[in-house]
Design goal:
By secondary structure, this protein is of the alpha+beta class. The chain has six domains: 94 residues, no CATH class; 126 residues, no CATH class; 43 residues, no CATH class; 150 residues, no CATH class; 171 residues, Jelly Rolls; 100 residues.
């Protein structure tokens, strides 16, 4: 009896153990569909009326009237019949090799099990992950538990800890983008405490240079540039946003707040100037000043760019293709693109030359005057009118740009984008809200005096609500002037017709006046009260003041709200259904009670239920520190991206980032760089070369070339030429003449003087049509659009740049002067010192001999050639001698050593 019971129990256990696990759609089915089926049966093409993108589409009837997939009945499912046919003309995949028996078996089992769809790993909310338990002394923190578990599964062991000097250089370049200050380096290299490394990390994280380094990463995502991009590619003042980024990283602004201010800083209650400057993230889109272009087309292009940037930069997911059709691989539908676009479609910018809206930067005295004016409005009118006055004085908004006018007679929207009037001119401005508007403030330039501008209601012959004499302004009309005129009270929205006559215009082609923008408002409040005139004068002084400005985001008021439509096949001229702001159904729902604007969108993006935001940032930080993301395709965490090598680690870090670190990027970075994984040596053994040549398992540290910015900044630091100056307008270090050749733009690169030419790379002026050439050579980008990942290349131009570019020769000169000053006159000591400065460790005999040979060969050529000596040194000074010229050759070689331009 006991034997029977034991035997029965054994059979039961065996049956449970051998029973098939259900098919996993995400891991087993989706890869087959994406590789073999989706090209013809997805969001773009749905041959035979069959699509595999969404379950409801896949289970629907096809054009033949049959169902391709019948859940629970693979035998009668048309898809199984078609993939098992023998005739290649009928078999699927069409005109391709048949599916393997294993793949057919997976699809058959999946359908018989009910053909359940599954969510892609990246679209599942982040949840708490259990840390694996591993044995051994190698582990320093939880990161290592995940790494060592995978190493054990692949019968590999981690590498030894890197030498202190390698570790010092690595972590310094990773955290502050350049070598550590001498006092920190000396303290770490000479210390013997177990806390030396963590103390070094904390000091680097507290350095103001930390913000500069990580700002460089974000500038690619924000497509930061100092020019507009199109045609003339003229300059624009965006640098205050770069400074905002530096401060945000340095103060460790929580990432959810960091994103909120950039997405919707202008919508925060009582938004500060700094919160408005944060919105430059979305104003970094290119603008087009070319004559004859359609401003609405390029406004729309900017809005589309903001949508794509939000997905690429913040969520690491491709969304741009949904502009034209449903996503071919991921669960995003065509109309969802335009629902998302609606969040950005209601902003004030309209592709104007002056980049309105602009935040005008007042000095301290003017800020005090602004406060006094706002207080006057609050006391004599209302809190809302005080807020409106402050907004208008700081931004000249919300105004109607005359570039939106149409129906022209003897008038035109000129180049640039404002209306110009000839004699007997007529044009129309549609849908202007006039309720409670009794005053008009406008900006104009008059070329001739004696003109009369009239504003008519609803037709060119309609009721006149304003009759305005326009005079000639300074600089023959090319200097703007801001004036006001009373309006006849009107209610509702109206089309306004503008007419202009001027008897002084004898030539019908002469331009009489140009008008930039119109601001419909009320009369200045508190008339008759003590101090009224003084306060009104202050108002107008502030309004007319010429001050620096920065393009920012600003939402339209309700009276100027735009409607959003689906673009059929992505064509902005072919409008489909009207849509309201919303997010894709396949991701977390829109927060309850959140406003349907960019503020609500920011709340959705930073919700703990959003599956992408934390993962994308964690993956990006990991790539910055270890060379490759846990999911290599930083730009695509979707189903066509490369899956994470350590998915549980990515999820654990993402959970920690949100819940334990409270969105602190510094805490995230600290966790990673304090791990034993990060601190490993980068040497590769024969075993690792065979089993893991691309270091996917992290049994060693990454060995990658430095970024373009790091190469320049490191050379400046080693040479001793680096300026410590932070913030401010972009600078112009050395570059060859003749690179700036934009049409209709005569500006040229004027090299900065003094220390400005030796400032960090992050401050270099960035022209989109001609980026700084040496940085482009090292894989810098034009920043026309968001770039989620720079692809590292290896070309001869890179060696030619660092060996021959005048900027690097100049740094080599400074390096030589430094060595002569710090190491004395003996060449061997100079070379030893130079090598140690560049690498943090002593030079070996072989390298020393090689550099001595180089010096001797160079010295032999220079000692009898004064011209070559002078050319190498660059100036006639006390350094102009053969010894210095030969040393410059050596310092140039040191700056080009493989060990120096690589992160080992």
């Amino acid at each position: 009896m006991i034997v029977v019971i034991v035997l029965s129990a054994s059979i039961f256990v065996f049956t449970l153990a051998t029973r098939h696990k259900p098919i996993d759609f995400t891991l087993q089915v989706k890869p087959i569909i994406n590789k073999y089926c989706i090209t013809c049966h997805g969001g773009v093409r749905q041959k035979g009326g069959f699509s595999l993108l969404f379950r409801e589409e896949a289970l629907a009837k096809t054009k033949s009237g049959k169902r391709a997939i019948i859940p629970g009945d693979a035998a009668n499912s048309e898809v199984i019949k078609r993939i098992t046919l023998k005739d290649p003309d009928d078999r699927m995949p069409y005109r391709h090799d048949p599916l393997s028996k294993a793949n057919i078996a997976i699809l058959r089992r999946w359908i018989n099990e009910g053909a359940q769809w599954g969510k892609h790993w990246a679209y599942v909310p982040v949840t708490k992950v259990e840390v694996p338990s591993v044995k051994g002394k190698w582990v320093q923190n939880e990161v290592d538990n995940f790494i060592e578990q995978k190493l054990q599964e692949n019968d590999l062991k981690p590498s030894l800890r890197a030498e202190k000097y390698y570790l010092l250089r690595r972590v310094s370049l990773d955290l502050i983008g350049m070598p550590a200050p001498d006092h920190l380096a000396l303290k770490f290299l000479s210390g013997n405490s177990n806390h030396d490394y963590s103390d070094l990390v904390d000091s680097l994280l507290a350095s103001p240079h930390y913000g500069e380094k990580w700002t460089g990463m974000w500038m690619d995502l924000a497509r930061y540039a100092d020019t507009k991009g199109y045609e003339k590619d003229e300059a624009r003042n965006m640098w205050k946003y770069r400074d905002w980024l530096i401060d945000a990283f340095n103060e460790d602004k929580p990432y959810d707040r960091f994103l909120t201010e950039q997405i919707a800083g202008d919508l925060l209650p009582d938004a500060t100037d700094q919160e408005l400057i944060a919105t430059v993230f979305q104003r970094n889109t290119m603008t087009n000043d070319e004559g004859g272009t359609d401003n609405e087309e390029f406004r729309t292009s900017a809005v589309v760019d903001r949508v794509n940037t939000t997905w690429d930069a913040i969520m690491g997911t491709t969304f741009g293709c949904v502009q034209c059709h449903s996503h071919p691989y991921d669960p995003f539908k065509h109309d969802e693109y335009y629902k998302f676009l609606a969040f950005f479609n209601n902003t004030r910018d309209e592709d104007t030359q002056d980049d309105y809206p602009l935040l005008r930067h007042y000095n301290d005295t003017m800020q005090q005057q602004l406060s006094e004016v706002v207080d006057w409005f609050r006391e004599n009118d209302s809190q809302q009118k005080a807020k409106d006055a402050a907004t208008f004085l700081k931004t000249w908004q919300p105004s109607y740009n005359t570039s939106i006018c149409d129906s022209f007679t003897n008038s035109v929207v000129g180049d640039p984008t404002w209306i110009i009037f000839r004699n007997n001119a007529v044009c129309r401005m549609k849908n202007v809200a006039l309720n409670n508007k009794e005053n008009l403030i406008f900006r104009y330039g008059g070329f001739y005096g004696g003109g009369i501008w009239k504003i008519h209601l609803d037709s060119a012959n309609g009721e006149v609500i304003a009759n305005v004499p326009l005079h000639k302004t300074k600089e023959d009309g090319w200097e703007w002037q801001i004036e006001e005129t009373a309006l006849k009270p009107v209610t509702g929205k109206h089309d306004l017709y503008f007419t202009y006559t001027n008897p002084n215009l004898k030539n019908s082609m002469n331009t009489g006046v140009r008008i930039d923008w119109l601001y419909f408002t009320d009369h200045f409040p508190g008339i008759g009260n003590k101090g009224y005139q003084e306060m009104k004068n202050t108002f107008w002084k502030l309004l007319r003041s010429k001050v620096p400005s920065t393009p920012v985001m600003m939402e339209n008021p309700a009276s100027m709200r735009r409607e959003t439509f689906v673009f059929e096949r992505g064509n902005w001229l072919v409008k489909g259904d009207r849509v309201e702001p919303d997010v894709p159904n396949s991701l977390n729902p829109f927060p309850e009670r959140a406003p349907r604007n960019r503020m609500g969108l920011a709340m959705w993006l930073t919700s703990s239920q959003n599956p992408l935001t934390s993962r994308a940032l964690v993956n990006r930080v990991w790539e910055q520190l270890l060379g490759t993301g846990l999911a290599e395709t930083l730009e695509d965490l979707g189903s066509q991206g490369i899956a994470p090598t350590h998915m549980e680690l990515l999820n654990w870090l993402s959970y920690q980032f949100m819940y334990e670190y409270k969105w602190s990027i510094k805490k995230l970075i600290r966790t990673i760089v304090l791990s034993a994984t990060y601190q490993q040596d980068s040497k590769i053994s024969d075993e690792l070369l065979e089993k893991d040549p691309n270091n996917k398992l992290y049994a060693r540290s990454a060995r990658v070339r430095l970024s373009a910015e790091q190469i320049r900044d490191q050379a400046l630091c080693i040479s001793g030429a680096m300026s410590s100056k932070m913030y401010g307008p972009s600078v112009y270090p050395y570059q060859p003449k003749g690179l700036w050749l934009s049409p209709y733009n005569s500006t040229d690169w004027e090299q900065s003087a003094g220390e400005d030419q030796y400032r960090r790379a992050v401050y270099t002026f960035w022209k989109r049509s001609a980026p700084y050439p040496s940085m482009v050579t090292f894989d810098g980008i034009a920043r026309n659009v968001c770039t989620a990942r720079r692809i590292r290349t290896n070309t001869p131009l890179q060696a030619l740049t660092t060996l021959n570019d005048s900027a690097y020769i100049d740094m080599a000169r400074h390096f030589a002067y430094r060595l002569q000053h710090e190491a004395g006159n003996e060449i061997t000591q100079q070379i030893k010192k130079g090598y140690e400065v560049a690498t943090y460790h002593a030079i070996d005999r072989k390298s020393l001999d090689a550099l001595l040979d180089l010096y001797n060969a160079a010295f032999a050529k220079f000692k009898n050639n004064v011209d070559k000596t002078c050319e190498m040194v660059g100036v006639m000074s006390n350094h102009t001698n053969a010894e210095t010229a030969a040393l410059i050759v050596v310092t140039n070689a040191i700056l080009n050593l493989d060990e120096v331009i690589m992160k080992n």
